[in-house]
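Hi support team,

I submitted a single chain yesterday and got back a structure, but I'm not sure I'm reading the token output correctly. Could someone confirm the output below corresponds to the sequence I sent? I've pasted both exactly as they appear in my results page.

Thanks,
R.
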Amino acid sequence: MDRIEVFTLIQSHLADELDVEPARISEETRFKDDLEADSLDLYTLVQELEDSYGVAMSDEQAARITTVAQAIDFVVEHAPAAT
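Hi R., thanks for writing in. Yes, this is the structure output for that exact sequence:
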């Protein structure tokens, strides 16, 4: 799994969920400040990441993730190794 794959999934999910152009979403994009995402939007993103990549994210960990890059880093660091 690489950063580009994870970024593409997050970008697609956010664009669909928040009805924004994918081009508006980069690694530097802040969920709340730039995309006006609320807690429900972020919860669904966490669920998507958990389902797609097998990562488990606590509420405390999720609360510390404020940018797309931080979400990508979390997935890359915590995803189970491919067999």
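A quick pointer for reading it: The helical segments are 3-18, 31-35, 39-53, 59-64, 68-78. Let us know if anything else looks off.

Best,
Support desk
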